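DM from R.C. (forwarded with permission)

"hey, sorry to bug you on a friday — could you get me a structure for this? deadline for the figure draft is monday and I only need the backbone to look sensible"
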Amino acid sequence: MLVTDEAMRSDPRKPYSVDQVLSGRENSRSYILGRAAELAPQLDCLVDGQQPDADHDGYGPCFQDCDEDDPAINPDAAELCDGVDNDCSGFVDDTPACPCPSIISEGQTFYLCHNDLTW
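My reply, with the result:
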């Protein structure tokens, strides 16, 4: 939806002045143009919905496949307790089947778990 300057000026519910809205729009435009190469893949996903699938695992790079070079890593993959985020959850080995790494400090053992444990 395209918002025109005239529509912004006539909207009685607007919480910001027209100048603030136009300034925000210009700041957003400058941000995007200044990072065109970095943002291009994400913008392509939003614009045309195309998802090239380089590793042929059924998931493209558009906010789904966290490793487009490895077909074994995708959102439907099982976590393998191998130090890799196999299921693209954002955490490594974050399933209850995976052991928690631990450290010992000043005689105390601390478990560094990514999943809930029952004690």
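R.C.: lifesaver. The longest helix spans residues 18-34.
me: no worries. The helical segments are 5-10, 18-34, 36-48.
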